[in-house]
Predict the structure.
Amino acid sequence: MKRYSRITGTGSFLPPQRLTNADLVARLAADGIDTSDEWIVERTGIRARHFCAPNVAASDLAFEACRSALLAARRNANEIDLIIVATSTPDMVFPSTAAILQHKLAQSNPAAAGIAGCPAFDVQAVCSGFVYALTLADSLIQTGAANRALVVGAEVFSRILNFKDRTTCVLFGDGAGAVVLEVSDKPGILASELHADGKHVGILCVPGNVSGGQILGDPTLKMDGQAVFKLAVGVLADVARSVLAKAGKTEADVDWLIPHQANIRIMQSTAKKLKLGPDKVVVTVDQHGNTSAASIPLALDVAVRDGRIQPGDTLLLEGVGGGFTWGATLLNM
Ligand code: ACO
């Protein structure tokens, strides 16, 4: 029997502190930084984002998202045999956020203790991280190395923002999304494709690093917005067409496009190139901002829970981010 993988449950979590554009504009104004709701909405589509409290880490957000995904899949944590967390804002340099998450899940109730011992690791592909993690989990399930995975995107981007740089600090937010991905005799995941091109490192990066117990360089996000915009629009349409061709499908087969939620204009432009109407695109960037690796599973969970996404629907997930990295997954729910 051929082994496939299928999503059996989705979950997400947003930290309770929600900042509208007006809240952020007021906060930045207190530091002499000039921006406006009009500018942010017109250029990005963002109206609000969530920020974590200082004592909350990516693994805390991931934990809540996983609990919700496990409930939706009607699974207990001790039935999970693989954990992959996509994040660029890990709790620590090491160990992985996935290992920390595993321990939190194992301790959450006595019946969950069996999750300890399964492989757990992080994937670092910035905003493409969830598509990378899902593709890896799918491959490990297909080969028989795993049967039931938690695949998570979790970010606390508020920690790596320079709130004196208005060109970046208005764009991002914190949050987590997760899916339970299980072995199945029917496909679920139909096709995936991943890419990276390191020559674009400089247009989107956090250049600092830790050395000799100190941070060397700048530990906040740097972005050439226009260069990122141009690259993103080009690669997203190309990788979508490529993954559809791999699966023997066309744009007409797609019920829902769930792109990385960076900027409404990038999403609209990609959808237009793929001849998909705006009613087929799941948009959460207005309420979440850009949550990097968390944005796709967060959007997926929102549209599953509000009833837009139904069992049997065909979804096209697309990520693009620092590296430059990009990728897409076509799947049946
Ligand atoms: N408020 C008010 N004015 C601003 C702000 C702000 N927050 N930020 C910039 N401006 C000003 C600039 O200073 C500039 O002023 P000037 O004309 O007097 O010099 C003007 O607005 C226009 O700036 P641009 O950079 O040309 O604005 P643009 O239309 O390109 O929009 C944006 C900027 C929103 C960043 C856009 O380029 C974009 O969305 N790029 C893609 C970003 C993205 O998707 N990033 C995530 C990738 S995923 C990942 O891996 C993290």
In short: Residues 112 and 251 are 41 Å apart (CA to CA).
